[in-house]
Amino acid sequence: MAENLYIASGSKSAQYEALIPQIKGLLEGETDAIANLANTVAALWQQFGWFWIGFYLVKEDQLVLGPFQGPIACTRIRMGKGVCGTAWEKAETIIVPDVEAFPGHIACSSLSKSEIVVPVIRNGKVIGVLDVDADEYNQFDETDKEFLEQIVELIPAL
To answer: 7 lies in a domain?
Structure first.
């Protein structure tokens, strides 16, 4: 396991490409789900400095807050509610350039301006979501979608 994270510069793709092997190293051999989620979030937060990043885990009929970096957050989200609940319901990544324009957006923080939510799918079932918020508009694109989907695939079963 690495003790220090190498913070890459350059294009967004180059930053992800440098980060993914480091996340693999953090996860390798670790069986505790919370530790793996926490280190994944911390690595992404250190590399990109997003406003908020974290996991919500499916527990019965709700998403429940898991490991995160950033200010306090909404604790529970129902299926189909907000960006996270919609990504869970649809089982697909959702990119939101302006959260105020998203119907039913849940404002955990008024400072959040754009968002991407990536479902964590195992055995055809959504078991959680990775939620990333930025305090600027239009911060997420297809590059983020591609690489964040790769990163959530690295996480062992929860």
So the answer is: no
